[in-house]
């Protein structure tokens, strides 16, 4: 296989945006992805809708996630695949494919990274498992956009799992869809369902500890989206525990669906349409990078000098131990920024991390992890590598002012 300027591991929002930004900056890029398509959690785990990514400043709406994220939204809109913030994931897969093809990016699907080789601080190649055995991929730079900081972990960069001090992560959730619903009737009976659910939960009749039934409308008029299973106290990086989580979550899907059919209207002719291909992982490993973004930084709305993205999504913590979800909402007009240093892992010189596994604590991750924001983080990582390729520099040597100017020139909002 040829040697690339950049290999991006993971084709979720962060990985795709990173690849696009680097390729548009002139780099020859490969995306390595273990599944069969681009989109990551949005498609593999049926995560939907985009959580809010705007605020109001001086009475005007200001979008905090723009750039490539906006291009993707425009693409969805053009294909009538975006309704408010809900989108059709099949269309998303297609749009991302087309964007990547247009940018001349190479793709390697069905390839799972399992090892790296390093010369001192430089990753020289990665190894992936494929149907035909193993394969080596060489590149001058790497971006870890696996969500789980998988590449950083394999490269022996320091990482942390979940919250301090017990390392529990936010719960995992298997999302599902119900079809042929009379949506109006369903929503009209929500209060009754809510009361029945609270009573059954209090009586210990439900295995799912989630405090309510979280449901969203979709762009398809008779289909509802449920993000409501909750598997707690399992390590998302342990193969055995993720397997247990998948089994438990599937039991919860049936439990909730049967419960709703008993206590809500509008489901008489419905059917369980689909569950996600994979259980959704909100939080797992995060790198310990050159800067660790903290919950306090977010609450203080810090504007870092090396800001590369902005966010005001609430600090949304689904209880890692059971029932309850806590929220800290940012005041209108306020937001924090994400520093470039939080993308730089320790002990390597030619790799960045993008997406939900950048360097942060549990509280900060609970806010910036949403799809619009990880997309912007990815764009920043890819733009930085584009500059590093051009200037033949290490990731720590990237001129941050040049990076910020490039991001702004390309339509990204970075918050300073
Ligand atoms: C249940 C749930 C509900 C959520 N709800 C919302 C919501 O409503 N709105 C919102 O905006 N956000 C939501 N989020 C958050 C958001 O979906 C994720 O944080 C975000 O999509 C992460 O993007 P990413 O690109 O960092 O990682 P991912 O989207 O996870 O992408 C990582 C990619 O890397 C690939 N990969 C992983 N390991 C390997 C490997 N070893 N080799 C090769 N490829 C690999 C994966 O297949 C995947 O495609 C939710 C998350 C979950 C789990």
Overview of the structural elements:
The chain is built from 12 helices and 23 strands. By secondary structure, the chain is α+β, with helices and mostly antiparallel strands. The chain folds into 2 domains: 4-164 and 283-409, FAD/NAD(P)-binding domain; 172-280, Alpha-Beta Plaits (2-Layer Sandwich), CATH 3.30.70. The strands form 8 sheets. Strands 1, 2, 7, 8, 9, 10 and 23 form a 7-stranded mixed beta sheet that branches. A 4-stranded antiparallel beta sheet has the order 14-15-13-16, covered by helices on one side. It has a two-stranded antiparallel ribbon with strand order 3-4. The chain is globular. The mean pLDDT is 97. The structure holds flavin-adenine dinucleotide. Flavin-adenine dinucleotide is lined by residues 9-15, 32-35, 40-42, 44-45, 47, 49-51, 112-113, 145-148, 150, 173, 175, 227, 280-282, 355-356, 369-371, 374.
């Amino acid at each position: 296989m040829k040697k690339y300027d950049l290999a991006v591991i993971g084709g979720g929002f962060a990985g795709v945006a990173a690849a696009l930004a680097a390729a548009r900056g002139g780099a020859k890029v490969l995306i390595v992805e273990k599944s069969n398509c681009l989109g990551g959690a949005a498609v593999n785990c049926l995560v939907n809708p985009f959580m809010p990514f705007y605020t109001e400043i001086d009475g005007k709406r200001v979008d905090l996630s723009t750039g490539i994220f906006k291009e993707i939204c425009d693409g969805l809109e053009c294909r009538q695949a975006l309704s408010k913030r809900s989108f059709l994931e099949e269309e998303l897969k297609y749009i991302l494919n087309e964007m990547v093809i247009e940018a001349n990016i190479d793709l390697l699907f069905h390839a799972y990274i399992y090892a790296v080789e390093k010369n001192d601080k430089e990753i020289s190649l990665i190894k992936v498992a494929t149907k035909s055995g193993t394969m080596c991929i060489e590149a001058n730079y790497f971006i870890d956009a696996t969500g789980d900081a998988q590449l950083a972990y394999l490269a022996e960069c320091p990482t942390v799992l979940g919250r301090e001090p017990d390392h529990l992560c936010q719960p995992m959730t298997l999302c599902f869809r119900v079809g042929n619903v009379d949506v109006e009737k369903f929503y009209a009976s929500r209060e009754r369902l809510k009361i029945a659910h609270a009573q059954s939960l209090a009586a210990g009749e439900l295995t799912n500890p989630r405090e309510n039934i979280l449901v969203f409308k979709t762009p398809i008029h008779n289909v509802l989206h449920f993000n409501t299973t909750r598997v707690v106290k399992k390590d998302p990086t342990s193969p055995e525990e993720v397997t247990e989580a998948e089994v438990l979550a599937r039991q919860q899907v049936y439990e909730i669906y049967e419960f709703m059919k008993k206590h809500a209207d509008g489901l008489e002719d419905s059917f369980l349409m689909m569950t996600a291909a994979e259980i959704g992982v909100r939080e797992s490993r995060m790198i310990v990078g050159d800067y660790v973004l903290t919950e306090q930084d977010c609450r203080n709305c810090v504007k870092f000098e090396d800001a590369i993205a902005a966010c005001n999504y609430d600090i949304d913590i689904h209880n890692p131990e059971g029932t309850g979800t806590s929220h800290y909402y940012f005041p209108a007009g306020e937001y924090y920024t994400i520093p470039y240093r939080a993308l730089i892992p320790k002990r390597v010189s030619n790799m960045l991390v993008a997406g939900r596994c950048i360097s942060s604590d549990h509280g900060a991750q609970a806010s910036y992890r949403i799809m619009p924001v990880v997309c912007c983080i990815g764009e920043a990582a890819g733009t930085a590598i584009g500059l590093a390729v051009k200037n033949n520099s290490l990731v720590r040597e990237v001129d941050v002012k040049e990076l910020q100017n490039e991001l702004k020139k390309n339509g990204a909002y970075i918050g300073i």
